[in-house]
Amino acid sequence: MPPLRGSGVGREAEDPEYAGAYRLEACLGSGGMGVVHLARSASGLRLAVKVVHEHYASDAEFRARFRQEVAAARRVSGAFTAPVVDADPEADRPWMATLYVPGPTLAEQVKRNGPLARAELRRLTAGLAEALRDIHRAGVVHRDLKPGNVLLTDTGPKVIDFGISRPVDSDLRTETGKLIGSPPYMAPEQFQRPRQVGPAADVFALGSVLVHAATGRGPFDSDSPYIVAYQVVHDEPDLTGVPEELAELVARCLAKEPAERPTPDEIMAALLPPSYEAAAFIPAQRRAVPAAPVGASEADAPGDVETRALRASGGPNGSPDGGRRRRRRWPLVTAATLAVLVGGGVWAAAGPGGDAAAGRTDRAGQAAAAKPFSAWRTALPGGGDAAPVCSFASSDGGGLYCAARGIAAARIDPATGRLLWSSPGRTGVEVQAPVLAGGLVGTVTEDGTYRTYAPGTGAAGWSADVSGYLDGVHPVGDTLLMASRSGEVTAMDGATGARLWRHGLRGHVDPRIGPYDAGSGLVTVFEAAGERHTLVTAVRVRTGEIAWQQRLARTVVPVGTAPSGALLLTELDRDARTVAVVRREPGTRAVTRVALPFPMTETKAVVDGGAAYLLSRSGTLVAVDTDVPGGRRLWQLETAAGRVSRPSVGPGDRLYFSAADGRLLAVDTARGVLLGQTDPRLRDGRLGHAGTLPAPLPTDGKVFGSAPDGSVFAVESGDPARW
């Protein structure tokens, strides 16, 4: 939804007090289609709630368009957009609630402080290209990208307002004569053949947005929207003032023919690597809630990331608009007028690197142990186009064991990055990290064989066929657990491969192996029965004896054990979204449920003490404390990292996770703030093809990670801001 300025008068007396269960606290602004209100969820999360004007609520076509807006916004990852928290397009007054983001729009920033500096402009270009890639991957075309629909946050730009967006496969049509965009930022095909508008139209709009960010004006500028429409279709863009290193790329974005424009991936490739070396844009925080743009979330606990104003004193001429004339707000324009200007077109709201050899690191041998730790990077030979997966065994003198597409197992010196040994072998699409169990390193190869190796030399040990088991081998201490399709669980000794026990667990027909608690020697086995309940069983690893068993309401997934012995689980809704954290007490069997502020998609969780940290696919990180009576949400952080690994907790109130582009990110768990991140590590600009991303491995003083360029790396954990 677009940012709306001022509270306005008139229709606000008709506005409801509630939208669904959300009480509307203040009016953020009013626009042609509805009113945007500030609201709070039950947990206190700040929301921006768009409520449709009453006279549109009875318009069947508008309701269809609003349903499409909600669906489009939900399809897109929240890393680059304003995630939808809740909506009801069928209400008497349709409404949609999104997370609220405090930050200026690009239009406001340029008006207040003048054009962006070159480094900021490069970062904006990369961020918006990444956002469009994410939007287009979800099958959505935004169709109205403009400076007013770009929020500048401390984690990068976010694109908002999907009011006229369309899924590529949408059959929705609207009658001729309705607004479909803002003339200075519309592509030629939006005027000429709107039913054929595709992702390339968003790239054209990106070019126009970048010209505005660089110069304070658009590439097609006139007092008349009709003349602008003609210029977009027939004239060449005015790129005066666009930095030379970006001018050619912007010109390609503004090509008249959609096929001649670059894709978002090609834009990012053209910027690498300098765009990632440019300083991130850090906007000034708003001083008051009213009149703020609508958008995504804000972590409202103490310790949120502080921001600073880049140009607090105003624009280059000392005035709020930098000495430039005020930008025009374009009115709604009908097709009947513009069709004449653009040559018979119809205007309608419709339409569908690094080191090549392993071991090119510190080769000082034993002398390296006496020196301070130095960051290193090692490329595994034959590592393929996906991130290697690794495990760290402190019990083995600090062994780092890794596997990749062409490497069944390898050992790397954690101090220097030197490759000590490797064993070639095909590991399949989903690679399992080699793990030390029973004094041997074991991994599963593509043919379903569990193979073991001597940790010191890599010499082959025993092997066994494990192809008949559901989800691989689960090392728990020195024991290997597997669940079969017949409902049985098997335990093998990690040192010899001998079977310790094998039997079915009462009540289970399709068991899954959950987390292991080394303190109690218990492993959790669970199985969901539709949406009604989940059977959870605690099993003694060495004997197979059932320690306890309980049916918990709804679909839950065990994620870890607190020091008290309490089991922490995540609760899923019917769409497999995480909606709560559940705590099951030992002894009393009492269950506490802590609802999350909004459903989280493809969530990965980690437990540290009595706290659970949940990271969604869109990069939203939520911390929940279950130790206090009834539980409570500690903080929420928007990391803007789309497609992420499972988080890992390290010493010193640190949490780490990886992003799809090879970045390693660090978060302060005490305050809920982002501490730092590494540069991306891509192979030829590609993200790779791994189904899941390996989690980082934090140890005392260092963190190990892996990246899509096929490398394993280590960085010092002391000061992530210097990564």
Automatic annotation (TrEMBL):
Record's signal peptide: none
Region Disordered, residue ranges: 293-329
InterPro entries assigned to the protein according to its UniProt record, in alphabetical order: Kinase-like_dom_sf, PQQ_b-propeller_rpt, PQQ_rpt_dom, Prot_kinase_dom, Protein_kinase_ATP_BS, Quinoprotein_ADH-like_sf, Ser/Thr_kinase_AS, WD40/YVTN_repeat-like_dom_sf
Pfam family, one: PQQ_2
GO molecular function: ATP binding; protein serine/threonine kinase activity
Binding site for ATP: K50
SUPFAM superfamilies per UniProt: Protein kinase-like (PK-like) (SSF56112), Quinoprotein alcohol dehydrogenase-like (SSF50998)
Domain Protein kinase: 22-282
Keyword field contains Glycoprotein: no
CDD domains found in the cross-reference section: STKc_PknB_like
Keywords noted in UniProt: ATP-binding, Kinase, Nucleotide-binding, Serine/threonine-protein kinase, Transferase
PANTHER family linked to this entry: MITOGEN-ACTIVATED PROTEIN KINASE KINASE KINASE 20-RELATED, SERINE_THREONINE-PROTEIN KINASE YBDM-RELATED
Name this protein carries in UniProt: Serine/threonine protein kinase
